Amino acid sequence: MALLVAEPAYNPSKADLKTVALKGHFVSLNDANNGVKTGAIPYNKAVVDRNKALYATKKGLCDVCQSAKDEVRSTFGFSSPEFKQVSKIKFTKLAKVD
After folding, report:
1. Reported pTM
2. Does the pLDDT value for residue 11 go beyond 90?
């Protein structure tokens, strides 16, 4: 930006290319970039917390639900209607947390 202001030969005819407009655009881009940087920290923390809640060994939602399915199978039997209902529910670990 300082280079354009210092260059006397830079005199575009379009208003959006003049140094005043470019400076305004630079400020808005810089503000947007700072907003992304500010928001990235809580977002990344939320992703880590979500992954722990879903995928933690023995305490995560996937393991707890799989244990519940195993319990239904052992209580009611493999061919019971109760187990057939829950056996269709799939739990997949997408992230390694531990």
Report:
1. 0.61
2. no
